[in-house]
């Protein structure tokens, strides 16, 4: 007569949890800076309780059973949290598979016949193979969400629109321009023109490593959109090698004001606004006092 494995494991829940915690804490790669031992114990106990409550002779080798929906839900939540906290896939894998080792160790401490012990061990391995796949799928999904959020934040930071003077905004572009980034550049620039009621926008491309026909098309579209907003657009940071590339590609920028540096563009903007900036003669003022 076969033993009820689920009941055997349920009776040894406390010792299984202790063995599992011992396995995790003995791992050299454990990141105690990301989670305290108390939180790790609470997390482990929640998963173990759900697993033992839903484990039965009928589903012990079927991780896809509907009975394990609560277990998968907890496991997915843990994987997502660990991905966001910065755990590696290996660390998350150790968390899950060290539970399997603790369960098998508990079975060895019972009086199961060797054949039954072997068959039960094989079933538990299959069950945790399924849980492992679920864990890694969820972990990767969580990590992709983190990467996408960081990419959006970097794109936002890398396209700052600066109000350099009353009526003048500047947007220094650093790195490669592509369609997605150009859209962010255009949206940020147009919104800043509206917010500041600026009439002049300076696009500084001194941080763009290369200009090809696609980048040039992006710049032309941004300039056109700026003009539709009633503002004049100046492109600065035209380096000699970029100027040669533009000429070689036959790109017509004759209708756009271009300057070699941001300083030259700002000077031109001042002239358009009929502003004059003079260096203050401090020595002469001191002499007259």
From TrEMBL:
Domain of life per record: Bacteria
All residue ranges annotated as the STAS domain in the record: 158-269
Matching entries from InterPro entries are given as: Bact_StressResp_Reg (IPR051932), RsbRD_N_dom (IPR025751), STAS_dom (IPR002645), STAS_dom_sf (IPR036513)
- Keyword Electron transport in the entry? The reply is no
* Keyword Phosphoprotein in record: yes
Entry-linked PROSITE patterns? STAS (PS50801)
Q: Which UniProt keywords apply?
A: Phosphoprotein
Descriptive protein name: Anti-anti-sigma factor
Gene source species? Flavisolibacter tropicus
Per the UniProt record, the lineage of the source organism begins with:
Bacteria, Pseudomonadati, Bacteroidota, Chitinophagia, Chitinophagales
